[in-house]
Amino acid sequence: MTKQIINSTKAPKPIGPYSHSVLANGNLYISGQLGVNPESGKLKNTLSEQTTQSLINLGRILEEAHMSYEHVNKTTLFITDMAHFSEVNDIYHTFFTENYPARSCVAVKQLPMNALFEIEVIASI
User: Fold this and answer.
1) Is 105 a catalytic residue?
2) Predicted structure pTM score
């Protein structure tokens, strides 16, 4: 198996010992992305801002791997309150507009940096 590490200088630096993504056997595994502004390193304030920034950061990593949102096969969303599900869906739909990937959404007690939203994905060439 060939494994290639793919990091993007246009996405926030990882906050731990992990890579933005790993390409293996034609599949791109992207680590969870928070709504962190890559320039400031600061988490955006609102759920809407965090969700949007997370999806933008995701796009930048996909771009670095010469992929787009259309290459995404599976997403996993993490939110801190299931009451946010509808708002997250509305924003998600602006990035994934057709041929939707498979998806899970999980409510969690807490996320890194006290974020309100995180997304991880699997994409393929």
Assistant:
1) yes
2) 0.96
